[in-house]
Design goal:
Layout (H helix, E strand, L loop, with lengths): L5 H21 L9 H12 L9 H10 L6 H22 L11 H21 L5 H27 L7 H11 L1 H15 L3 H29 L3 H5 L4 H8 L4 H13 L4 H11 L2 H25 L6 H11 L9 H7 L1
Helix pairs in contact: 1-4, 2-5, 3-8, 4-5, 4-8, 5-6, 6-7, 6-8, 7-9, 8-9, 9-14, 11-14, 12-13, 13-16, 14-15
Amino acid sequence: MNSATYVDLHRHVSLDIEAEIEAALLRLAPASGTSAAKSAVSRLLRHQKLRHPLSVLPMMVHAIETGDPGPAVPLSAVHVLWWTSACYLDDLADGHGTTASGGLGQNEALLASVLSGTVLPIQIIRSLPVPAAVQGALTAEIATGWVVGTEGQLSDIDADADRATRKTVITAYRGKSGGPFSMITTMAAALSGASDERVELWREFGYIFGILWQIFNDQEDILSGRNEDLLNGTVTYLLTCVLDDAPTPQAREDILGWCDAARHSEEARAELTRLLLAPDVLDRYTADLDAFRAEAHRLLTALGGDERHLPIMRHLVDHAAQMLLQPALAAPVAASA
């Protein structure tokens, strides 16, 4: 498969992934073909659409290892189902998941997310024509992904801006985003028959990629104008850059005050955004982002693999590691307040 980008690859295989998901949904239906569970999960999938086609990530890992992305299509379905569940639960924790579309209420969506994130992925793994030992290892990774991801998410929810540092935020990012990506890259490597050493390298790559993708999401949240992180009081890596570089203790207290007020005040959100987009803050942020990008590329160099598919993964790393924010945005944002 000679695709220039991960998006190109997704165009080639999206129907295969959809077919795999549909086959998984059919396992929820009895012989009659009607099932409230199948209907609820289907509606949740339509409601909780993923914005980026990262479902091809396990296929890219498998292709780098073997030259063939095809056998990892079931893992791509697992990726979609897992993140559909995780994203809904995240919205629910933030207070945004009260109602899903298509008449799917909160209780129904919650039950559907349990099936989507746990039962269906396990059923897909059990259906794979691989030895029982491989099925066991893949199933264990799903459990590990949930534990690590949940630990990171809980750390994020409990984070206190006054006590947060760059290190504590990256630890949370490594869990809540890195854990799930590490889960799927590890599963793909194990499915490919890679050695234990290579599987562990792919595990670490997943962690680093997850950090990059979380930073990418943080930037998108600001650029989109949603400002969900400010509304939810989320402690982001960019915020710790501002706090760590505060020139005086009083300046730091002022920033913490804006953080508290930003949950309810548009003026506070505008002022905090101005601080987040200060040139010196973004310079530090860019340098740290470049360091994570370099580490991801270092791991890919150590791994090597199929030269037709390795460039696609490198492109994905560069895409995730883009510096999207610009200092010039600070002025109009502040003025709009």
